[in-house]
Amino acid sequence: MSENKDEYVRKLEAKMDELKADMDGLAARAEQAEGEARKKYQQEIKNLKARLRELEEKLASAQDADDAGWEDLKQGLGKSWETWKKSFSRAKEEFEKAYREGPKK
After folding, report:
1. What whole-number distance in Å separates Cα of residue 5 and Cα of residue 20?
2. How many domains does one find in the chain?
């Protein structure tokens, strides 16, 4: 079971790394925004980073879990990942929509 846990953790870490890179791109776009839009985007990125830190903490706990507690942690990790991914996707869609529409006059 330890091998399955390690494989799961590695896959989740790889997915998180991909989304972190996407988040860096969003942060760069946020810096190009102006006024209230910029503040809104920066706050959204701050919130996403806080949720990501929580997920990373859960992932660290999962790596230290024994086989008996692994299944419970895996389930919680999966839910946390899905929540974070949905939040990120929603934020990314908002950023892209605003980027396409340009600044509001």
Report:
1. 22
2. 1
Closest CA to 7 of 62, 81, 53: 62
| Run of H or E residues at 103 | none
Residue type, 47: N
Please state the pTM of the whole predicted model. Answer: 0.72
Cβ atoms of residues 70 and 17 within 8 Å: no
**Residue-number span of the structural domain to which 36 is assigned:** 2-101
Q: Encoding tokens for residue 46?
A: 């701050």
Residue 47 · residue 94 · CB < 8 Å: no
Question: How do residues 50-89 score in pLDDT, each as one tens digit?
Answer: 888 888 888 888 778 777 777 778 888 888 888 888 888 8
